[in-house]
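[SOLVED] Need 3D model of a two-part complex

Original post:
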Amino acid sequence: MGRFRQGFLALLTIASPLLLYASGNLPVFLPDDPIRIMPAPVTVARVKTHKIDQVFDFIRNSVRWEPGPPVPADAVNTLGEPPDSAWFTNRHGLKHRMTREELQRGPAGAPPVPPFVVVGGKTEGITPGFRIQDAKGRTFFVKVDPKTNPEMATGADVIVSRFLYAIGYNVPENYIVRARLSDMSVSNKAEIATENGPARKMTWSDFQAIEKAIPHYSDGSFRVMASLKIEGEPVGPFFYEGIRADDPNDLTPHENRRDLRGLYVFFAWLNNTDARAGNTYDAIVRERGVTFIKHHLIDFGSSLGSDGDRAKDARLGHEYMIAKPRDALRSIVTLGLAPRRWERVDYPNLPSVGRISAEAFDPDRWASDYPNPAFLSRLPQDDFWAAERVVSFSTDDIHAIVETAQFSDPAAVDYLTSTLVERRDIVGRTFFAKVLPLDNFRVENNELLFDDLAFQHEYSAAQRYEVHWFEFDNRTGHQKRISTRPSAQLPPEVRRASNGNYFSALIESPADRRKSVTVTLRKTPTGYRIVGCSRTSV
Amino acid sequence: MGGFLRPYRDWLMKPFVAFFVCLLLFHPELRAQGDPVPTSRAEQIEQEQSAKDQTLGPDEPTPFERHFKLAEKDARRILQGPVRLQVGGLSVPSGFAVGPSVTWQNSTKTLRLNSWAVGSVRQYYSVGTGLELPRIGGRHTDITVKAAHNYMPQLDYYGPGPNSLKSNRTDYLLEDTRLDFGVAWPYFSSHVKPRCDLAQVWLNVGPGTSDAVTSTNLKFGPAQAPGIDNQSNYLIAGCGLRFDFRDLPDNPHKGTAVFLDYHGYNAEKTSLFSFTRASGEVEHYIPFFNEKRVIALHAAADLSFHSENQVVPFYMQPTFGGFRDLRGFRFLRFSDENAAVANAEYRWEIFTGFDMAIFADAGEVFHRPSQFSLSNIKSDMGFGLRFNNQRNLVMRIDTGFSKEGFQVWVAFDKVF
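Solution:
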């Protein structure tokens, strides 16, 4: 028998790594959890440039209004937070805050320096635009405002790029530039795109035609938004679903990425309705000796109250461009005589703001121009992650960023600030209500502490929470209750446990037990480390 | 195996153990995880990256997307290029019409040329060429020159006046060759534009070619159809003034436009058919619910003036009926020397690019202003579907109902 036991143990000794290897069952938590930064990417080699067909993209996405089966978000650490990656960099949040100057600077380095040489342009289409090189030889893409709404589209582009940068996304450096005709010249090599024919040589009169379409200040100067060419080799847009087959670092289907699902909440807050793949930009960059694809968001001229070439259509942000069949049928049957709430919003007459309001803003029903696959896939946990970042912008933060639009009308700054503050609070109230809005978990004096974000931001009254304790088997994920009475105090089993042991705390609200948070902690020589956090929702 | 394992050799040789180990080692799913067990999250991710790096493939669009893209590119080239296929563009009874069209403009957009040759299944055709010189003369003058030949072999005529009978439908052939010269001065602002025109028109009127309808000359004499036996060419000259304060002229949601014209029609072969015509048109758009509802109001009148011994030939008379005015009646249903029409529409947006409308039309033709009578007003009602892009109405399907039945119109132009 002894021999048998010895033999069996030996077999286990041999087999256990094999078992582990075979079963694929990693421990639930690994020693470096939760990771804050993704490991260095693998160098990319052969990457084909995506060429998006805007019409195909619009049609394909416009007719699938309903989400698929719920799939938990991926590309997150064990706390449910996206680590720093080629997609996202944690910059401004409740735990780490950027200064007012950092928020205003955004991704910006040095603004464009005159004189400017026009190196290309387009006069056809709805919005004219051109490219310039500044005195330092840097290339900028230049966008302008419609004559009906001076400062609107350029202001929106600059403001939203700074918000998204602060949140964590890669965006271009956008600058407001006030120029005169005398600052400009056209390069001999400049070409201009034509509507249906090949590009041709661009002349000074071509530029004058563009310049005439731009609103001018009384002193003869005009204002544009100059967006610095993104560093690296462009390889087209990224799509909001699927993965790039030629990118070794692209491991998670995009529709399951929390940073892309959460973008819904940020875009809803900022009313950036043009959430098409066409407004994204992948570039091959080389950083720290590795060549990889970096993912950017671009073109925010259709955000806030702007729709680029005009004030935003009141529908946008409230319904998809192609409405759900049910909504369309309702409108047909009622002859349009039952107006929806958003149709009755009274917008202020602020041309540089356009049409944006907190009235009728329902962040849970907000709609981008078409149903974005990542947005359709979002779950309350994704919304909570993003809402937490939205509410991290204080009123002063918002005001500071709105100021970067350099609106001539102080009323525009005030209105936009107050509107974004109101929308921020609606976002917080809406999405904090779907989960237990608890965060900043920590153990102090043998007690599990956390912040109730809804209470902290005055979105709800103080709630009572119950904490139940469990032993947590890191190899299997099984939990065994170790306390009979709920308490935030660490039970003796936890305090007596040796280092490396795991425990989980289930936090519930007696008012609604459908919502809970499970926090997992590992005992360490110096105390307790919060290694995991998961939430259930209504 | 080293000495450490020697005592357990028997156990290892047991068949079930061998099977177990083999299963672990050779099971395809398990073999897929060929990397060692990661000891950290970072290592796990690196392994996944390395594994994908071994299986990279080209990131290609689906075959369907590729074909869609090619088809779209071809369609754009055929329908929107400088040399393109023009679809439609003839009068409504022409049936499906198609033909080549060429457009060219210089780099400074101060010269634009356009030529076309469009034919239809009912043997209508139009060929012509135009020259536009926008913003010349210190940028305050637009000049247009156009030459065209139009062949319309089956235009309907029901007799003069508001009480013409539907059963009196006839058809005639109208062939015209026109040379137009126009000058406009967008001088005051883009909203107010005076213009003057001079046109030479060579006309040929003859029997209609439809087998299903009696030719006009067989049913109506000169008394009912002045000019049926005697036709003339015309020199037309006149001026007009446009006040246009609509937001988007090709798909307006708010604002007002007023168009006034006064033209002299000088008949060159006979003194019987000269006349002058005053035309006026007003559009007004009342938006509400953030421009998602629009009440569109429109009124237009064509009044002809001439001396007692002159008449307006039937092929130069204003007409009503059709997709632009009285939508519950057949095209060209009513005609006489004078005409007035009013339209009202309530439009509501279903979703972006798609509106619906309900409308009411009323109009009357009359020979003399004194003959205008409320009892002769013809009216209809109906509903429409409107498909538009950001700035233009692309297509509309209007269905009008009147005492004479109903009509369905598919048009690629705005209503008024």
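Edit: Chain A is about 25% helix and 20% strand.
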